[in-house]
Specification:
By secondary structure, the chain is an alpha/beta fold. The protein is 45% helix and 14% strand. Strands 3-2-1-4-5-6-7 form a 7-stranded parallel sheet, sandwiched between helices.
């Protein structure tokens, strides 16, 4: 029970990586606040985890009061807050030609500003528990990707925020901030995106070695397993760190289009 009696907010946890992290947190002894936009999926997850171990909040993460609503719900339901996981993200296909200012601002709002806002709202409670924040970024923060211009920039900004706050908050009030950067993960949303792009349903089974040296993609449960270390006390005083979770070195590697 690596998270016994801890209380964790996981944004974007009705599906994908966030869902896997929330489930693993409960398995490790934590109580969790589930967040997202898909009420039916969120309610099903709470039913699976147990209403005594989880609670659901449905709201767009960029709403001005959403961070405070999440924090207030954690305190009202479980009495404290030990950690937050900033997982909610907008993955929007765009190049410089197709990215207008409205789209760019929307991506930054979800992927960079919302994590800052939640951390700021949670800070007094994290300080009281000497807790932590875990940001879920992307390897695109380092290398970018064709067709994910705005998304890659937003994740690069998240890296800088993690480095900055991971140092200052740790020094000043004992709150650790770290980040994991997943590579290509086989989530429900990724399956939907590829289906919308015209790919066959089994596209992920025939990936070239250049894209999946292991012969398969990363799975949400594998990201969740890594997340637990950063949320648990066993990560000790480590703060301001960025860890890439991918099958191959990212920086400088040429990748063909799928």
């Amino acid at each position: 029970m690596r998270l016994k009696n801890k209380v964790v907010i996981v944004t974007g946890s009705c599906t994908g990586i966030g869902k896997a992290i929330a489930k693993r947190c409960v398995a490790e002894g934590a109580n969790v606040v589930i967040h997202g936009l898909e009420r039916d999926l969120g309610e099903a997850l709470v039913a699976d985890l147990g209403a005594d171990r989880s609670v659901l909040h449905i709201e767009e993460i960029t709403n001005e009061q959403a961070p405070q609503h999440l924090v207030d719900l954690a305190i009202a339901t479980f009495g404290k807050l030990d950690a937050i996981v900033n997982n909610a993200a907008l993955v929007a296909s765009s190049t410089i030609q197709t990215t207008d200012l409205a789209l760019f601002r929307k991506v930054l709002d979800v992927n960079t500003i919302a994590p800052f806002a939640l951390l700021k709202a949670a800070l007094p409670h994290l300080q009281a528990q000497r807790g932590c924040a875990l940001n879920i970024g992307s390897v695109n923060a380092w290398s970018g990707e064709y067709g994910l211009m705005a998304y890659s920039v937003s994740k690069g900004a998240l890296v800088t925020m993690t480095r900055n706050l991971g140092d200052t908050l740790h020094r000043e009030i004992g709150v650790r901030v770290n980040q994991i950067n997943p590579g290509w993960v086989l989530t429900e949303r990724e399956l939907e995106r590829k289906r919308e792009q015209g790919f066959a349903d089994n596209w992920y089974t025939t990936l070239p070695p250049s894209l999946s040296p292991a012969g398969r993609m990363l799975l949400p449960d594998e990201i969740a397993a890594a997340a637990i270390y950063w949320l648990a006390d066993e990560s000790g005083p480590i703060s301001g760190q960025i860890v890439d979770l991918e099958q191959f070195p990212v920086i400088g590697r040429f990748l063909p289009k799928l």
